[in-house]
Amino acid sequence: MTSNLVSEIALARTAPTAPSGRPLVGGRSFKVALQGISLALCVALWHWMTTHRIHLGIVNFENVPSPSQTLDAAWSLLQSPKLARHLASSLQRVAWGYLIAAATGIVCGLAIGRSSWARIALLPPLEVLRPIPAVAWIPLAILMFPSAELPMIFITFTGAFFPILLGTIHGTESVDARLVASARSLGAGRWGVLREVVLPGATPGIVTGLAIGMGTSWFCLVSAEMISGQFGIGYYTWESYTVQRYPDIVVGMLVIGLLGMGSSAVVKVIGERLTPWRHSSGERR
User: Fold this and answer.
1) Which of these, 176, 181, 182, 184, lies nearest to 201 by C-alpha position?
2) What percent of the chain has pLDDT over 90?
3) 256 and 233 in contact (C-beta within 8 Å)?
4) Distance, CA of 98 to CA of 220 (rounded, Å)
5) 2-10+84-278, what's its fold?
6) pLDDT (tens digit, 9 = 90+) per residue, 253-274?
């Protein structure tokens, strides 16, 4: 009973108030149509600038592949037996690196956000390592790990870890101290407070960090594959540049963008399932 009371208090305090008098932009079909028009305009602009070989000062579109050339290259890639190997390699690397980063980032973030001793011990070295670009880790990662796969997984982990860590710390610190005090006065212990108050209150910040970390993990993975990979979308993109298959470069970039967008959407959906109170009062999305 105590845990249920604590949970209800936490949910009530973390639930946002419904926006008053704020009109909705439009229905779902209107939003989908608007998104489709936006994408179509971007493709039309791309087609116009490449077919007319527009030269805007320092930006030159004379050698940029057109949408039709990119579409032909994409069709060739779809028929290639290497596509499945490229996708499987990149997805496997992102999955391992991201899952490890999520587990360690959430645990470390909760510890730093809740314990002054953990903050003193862990935060200084992490703050020193955080500004280092993931690309700078590649030579050292190759020296540290014996196989060719582990360095790329490590680079992916590095890119995803710090956004998840910071999101968890911010979410944990944003929990109202009065909720914690109320839970303790109701008889909740340390683990009860963590489970019933801190985690529900910190979940929005954790989800934000997870979504950002997913995007940075793809960015870092592609950089690693360009340097030390043999298969993967990043390797495919870099290989296309070295052999001067320029439409294939654009195809690789678009595939990376679609994979990143899709995986971030999955994280967003999971986050909405974990925080139903954020969207149950008519909040605009």
Assistant:
1) 176
2) 32
3) yes
4) 11
5) MetI-like fold (1.10.3720)
6) 999 989 988 888 898 888 888 7
Write out the two tokens for 253: 């970039």
Token couple for 67: 């949408």
pLDDT at 2 over 50: no
* Range 105-118 burial, b when 16+ CB lie within 10 A, else e: bbebbbbbbbeeee
How far apart (Å, rounded) are the C-alpha atoms in residues 179 and 170? 17
Alpha carbons 225 and 237: distance in angstroms, whole number:
9
Which of 169, 182, 33 lies closest to 114, judged by CA?
Answer: 169
Separation of alpha carbons 225 and 234, rounded Å: 5
Report residue 55: phi and psi, to 5°.
-125, 105
Taking the domains of the chain in order of start, what are their residue ranges? 2-10+84-278
Q: Could you tell me which of 113, 112, 132 has the C-alpha nearest to residue 122? A: 112
pTM score above 0.85:
no
Residue 183 exposure: Cα atoms within 13 Å on the Cβ side:
27
- pLDDT digit string, tens, across residues 110-127: 999 888 898 999 989 999
Burial of residue 104 (CB within 10 Å: 0-12, 13-18, 19+) is middle
How many CB atoms are closer than 10 A to CB 257?
11
With contact defined as beta carbons under 8 Å apart, do 242 and 235 qualify? no
Q: Residues 6 or more apart from 81 whose CB is under 8 A from it?
A: none
* CA neighbours closer than 13 Å in the CB half-sphere of residue 212: 16
Token reading at 213:
């970390």
